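Sample entry was shown:

___
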Amino acid sequence: MLKRLQSTGSTYYISIVDPEVPIEDVVGTIKDLVDKGKYCIMD
């Protein structure tokens, strides 16, 4: 899939929600990755 997207980066997604981890922490971590240019939100 990354070849088709012409990307060499990693793909991050939330596949399993851990009830012990607040969703705000997960979203905050993703925001930090977006701010660093290491995560791209694709529609």
User: Anything to note?
Assistant: The chain is about 30% helix and 0% strand.
